[in-house]
User: Fold leucine--tRNA ligase from Hevea brasiliensis.
Amino acid sequence: EGVQPQEYTVVKMEVLPPFPTKLGPLEGKKVFLGAATLRPETMYGQTNAWVLPDGEYGAFEINETDVFIITERAALNLAYQNFSRFPQKPSCLVELSGYDLIGLRLKSPLSFNEVIYALPMLTILTDKGTGIVTSVPSDAPDDYMALQDLKVKLAFREKYGVKDEWVMPFDIVPIINIPEFGDRAAEKVCLDLKIKSQNEKEKLAEAKRLTYLRGFTEGTMLVGELAGRKVQEAKPLIGAKLIETGEAIMYSE
Ligand code: A2H
Assistant:
């Protein structure tokens, strides 16, 4: 953990009915996967959500109506930031594993894909953010490689019970142009560095460093209300709009 607090936007990815049996007790509530992101301006390009198969999650009451599926650690932090039905006390309705979440149908704010699915990612850390990540393969090297792994490795899909139709129809959505990297920066950098899988940590760290540096300072939005504006200008405006509309909350740790 760093010394500086990290400010995340937690995007509310709505779980669409029908709920699987495990989520039965949540019937009648508004249920969301709470995805922690540092890049709210990229939400147009979402293709799926990521969960850690062996991760421990819970369905926590955020208020009278809304339930967030996140780690217990994040629920405790949120409870101290006024996001719990009961002050400073997480209220868990169901304990869940990542396996229970794979295949959930989701509707996520700003996404051009109207329905997306929860899929397995093996490199999610449970001591950071909410343990749920939203996937933007155009601009996040980790997301691009994890989605590639699922697309090209049938054995990987089978191991986690991932159906082809949750993965195959979802292509990169170009949302940001970066002068040196084009409009699919994560893909270009992963190809340039010859990254083979989501487990190549060092190469992926380098890929992230490269895309960041240029993306934030020189990137231009290609889509949405702020098309044509710099990423730097769009990021706080889009983040604020998601909060105003109730489609996201701020979370710090
Ligand atoms: B970012 P930092 Cl387009 N485990 O969101 C692993 N990764 C996690 C995580 C966890 N528990 N919680 C959040 N993250 C990811 C968008 C994005 C992100 C883009 C480009 C880069 C990028 C879409 N995925 O992050 O260590 C989330 O992915 C690159 C680091 O707190 C979150 O923002 O700095 C970011 O990592 C937070 O990482």
Remarks:
- Residues 220 and 230 are 4 Å apart (CA to CA).
- DSSP finds seven helices and twelve strands in the chain.
- Residues 6, 36-39, 42, 124-125, 128-129, 131, 133-136, 139-140, 143, 208 surround A2H (CB under 6 Å).
